[in-house]
C-alpha cells in the first residue's frame, strides 16, 4: 500500500493486488452503500492517518474516487470536503480506468506526441497496431479528461474500462509498452 497526500485535504492510496486480497475487496464490488466497502475505506483512512501523522475522521464528508489498475490493484483518491459544504453523505465515484486513442496513421500519432506537454510521469501509455491502425492506451490515477482533450485533436478518443483495453492488449500487436508517448517523443 502506498499513501501520499498531495494537498492537506487530499489523500491518494494505491493498493496492490495483494492489498486488495488482504482487504477482501475488488474494484467491481466497491459501492459506498455496502458495509464492506465502508469497512475498507475506514481501514484505509486509519492507515493513512497513522502514516501521515494526523487524525482523519472517516465520518467527515468526502469524495472518494476509485480507479482500477491494470495490475489488478486500485487507486483511491480521498478529497475531504470543507465543513461548510453541504453534502448528504460521502460519495464514491468510479472512474474509467483507461483512455483509448485510435490513430488512422503514424503522422497523427507523431504530431500528438510532439505537441504533448502533459504530465506523463503520472500515466502509463502503451501503443498497439492492427491493420495499419494504431491504438494508444493511457492509464492514469488522475483525471483522464486532460489527456482526452489533448489527444482528441489527433485521434478518436474514448474512455474505456479494462475489458476493452485488455482486448486490445490481447489481439493487437504491441509496439511500445508503459511509456509509449515518451518513447515516441524521444525519437522525434
Would you kindly provide a brief summary of this structure?
By secondary structure, this protein is of the alpha+beta class.
Explain what the structure shows.
With 188 residues, the protein is an alpha+beta fold. It has 2 domains: 2-94, no CATH class; 98-187, Alpha-Beta Plaits (2-Layer Sandwich), CATH 3.30.70. It has 6 helices and 10 strands; from the N terminus they run ββααββββαββαβαβα. The strands form 2 sheets. A 5-stranded mixed beta sheet has the order 1-2-4-3-5. The protein has a 5-stranded antiparallel beta sheet with strand order 9-6-8-7-10, with helices on both faces. It is elongated.
What characteristics describe this protein?
Alpha-Beta Plaits; 10 strands; single chain; 188 residues; 5-stranded mixed beta sheet; 6 helices; 2 domains; 5-stranded antiparallel beta sheet; 31% helix; 31% strand; alpha+beta
Amino acid at each position: 500500500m502506498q499513501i501520499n497526500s498531495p494537498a492537506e485535504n487530499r489523500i491518494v492510496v494505491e493498493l496492490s493486488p495483494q492489498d486488495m486480497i488482504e482487504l477482501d475487496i475488488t474494484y467491481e464490488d466497491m459501492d459506498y452503500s455496502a458495509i464492506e466497502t465502508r469497512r475498507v475505506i475506514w481501514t484505509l483512512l486509519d492507515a493513512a492517518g497513522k502514516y501521515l501523522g494526523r487524525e482523519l475522521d472517516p465520518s467527515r464528508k468526502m469524495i472518494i474516487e476509485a480507479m482500477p489498475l491494470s495490475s489488478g490493484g486500485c487507486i483511491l483518491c480521498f478529497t475531504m470536503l470543507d465543513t461548510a459544504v453541504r453534502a448528504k453523505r460521502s460519495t464514491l465515484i468510479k472512474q474509467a480506468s483507461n483512455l483509448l486513442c485510435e490513430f488512422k496513421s503514424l503522422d497523427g500519432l507523431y504530431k500528438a506526441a510532439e505537441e504533448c506537454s502533459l504530465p506523463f510521469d503520472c500515466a502509463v501509455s502503451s501503443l498497439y497496431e492492427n491493420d495499419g491502425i494504431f491504438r494508444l492506451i493511457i492509464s492514469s490515477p488522475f483525471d483522464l479528461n486532460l489527456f482526452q482533450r489533448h489527444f482528441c485533436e489527433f485521434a478518436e478518443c474514448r474512455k474505456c474500462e479494462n475489458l476493452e483495453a485488455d482486448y486490445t492488449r490481447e489481439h493487437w500487436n504491441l509496439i511500445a509498452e508503459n511509456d509509449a508517448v515518451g518513447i515516441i517523443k524521444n525519437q522525434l
